[in-house]
Amino acid sequence: MDQDTTVPKLNFGYWLDKAIEWGQATTLESQKDVCLHLPQLQEFLHQLYETIKHSQSSTVAIQQFPLIGQLLGRLCWNPFVIGYDESQKTLMWCLCCLYSSEPQSTVELKANSWIRMVVSLVTELRENQFNGLNIQGSISASRVNAVSIFCVPLITLPDLTPLLETLLLYHGGSSKEVLSSEFLEAVNEAFLKKKISLPESAVFSLWLRHLPSLEKATLHLLDQLFSIQLNSLEEVACVMKDSLLPQAASHPAIFRIVNEIFKNALMETDGTSGVMTIIQVFTQLFLQAHQNENKQHKFPLKAYFPFHHQPLVRGLVRRPSELPTSYWSQHLKHISDMLKALVEDTNVSSLTDLFEIWFLVACFGEWLDIAAEQLLKAAVEPDAVLWLLAFYYCPKNENQQRTQTMVEAQAVYSHLMMLFSCTDLSLKDLEAAVHRITGIEQCWNQCLTTHLLTNFLLFSHGGHKIAQECIYHITKTTDTSKEVYNLLIRTAYRFNRSGEENQRTVKLLNELLQKLTLKV
User: Fold this and answer.
1) pTM greater than the 0.70 cutoff
2) At a CB cut-off of 8 Å and minimum separation 6, what does 72 contact?
3) Domain termination site, one of 166, 190, 209
4) Is there a domain that residue 84 lies in?
5) Which domain holds residue 496?
6) Which of 497, 508, 483, 516 is nearest to 277 (CA)?
7) 281-322 confidence digits (pLDDT tens)
């Protein structure tokens, strides 16, 4: 036997000769020689994989290295080669590069047949699932772990999907994670890049058992939403549902982690209306998924909001569509009264506590938009609803900030209500309200006034005629275009879901959105 272990890189001739010489390693001498050369063989296979993994097809790899099929095939039949974990894994990586969904050659057929050997493990694992805790005689945690590592380079192969699903749903009797983190990360990466398709149950199990994967999936969703021009919240909702995160959030542990990531994103972006709108849509989709859950599997609301005032939580999670519109004003007053009692409680002393209460309310922002609409359209006790909006736009009351915001809001509201029934309006009639937006330095007063004025333009008798002129003037002279745009797309989204029958308002909304999309 040749004992020289200094081998040129990618020397197919040398390793093919070795593979022929070793055969199936039936003699003691050949077994010793295999063991002697295993480190160099491992290095060779790794270099081979790095060379062929970027090939566009198995045909290209075979044309590049005509001896590859013969070499890999002989190595697969050598028990001392495949018995060594590292060599076995790298050998499978190389075979993966030769996989073909429509094999045309003997080499491709052979590679496919070797890759499919892992599918036989599905039966072994699935049978074990029904054995409860009696797994000692069937399969060990280390065996499952080894299988998960073995699958890493093969994850995107269609034939492997049943095995991936079984592994992700497998728990056995161990309290520790039995699947390798390398496997969990690779599956999550492939799922996020849409290289594989998995059942919801398998994806949810992945995120529950591997926190980094859930965090990455949430940040990936945010990146998607920030990087594309979304013209409607229907598009936002579609992207969110496709991510499976709102559905997965039916599990409280997933909901709380995703919510925390959203909260951090909001703080890092200084509370921009775009991020807040995304969070509000996600919360609506989560509630929808939660309410669709089977009653036997549904978690109580306290599991999702364990540290909040539960009557307030119950008030906020009531979806507007569940209540008659005639009851909305009463419901908003109830929310406002509870919130005011909480905020003015002397126990709520820290800014952290105040922020947590504010963020809870902000997540259910649909009620805030309805509040501004109800102020103008319905008989409503204005003080309670104005306080609710003032708290949203100015949660802190340092130096009487919120109190001053209330005074500003009441003045704007009174002025707009005087004009609400007028059918013939000009921009000059709204001069006082517009000046409060363009001349205000405090952003919270500016945003609240913008919210009220935009609703006036949408829902008043004479507001339609001057809506485009007024909004153009406001967004041209102030930095409120994104605020207005997000308010309009939220209103359009709510109208589309409720089947709003006022076609004149819907038509105006669409016209305003088309104009603003060009500017935002």
Assistant:
1) yes
2) 91, 94, 95, 98, 111
3) 209
4) yes
5) 331-348+368-520
6) 483
7) 999 999 999 988 777 778 999 999 999 999 999 999 999 989
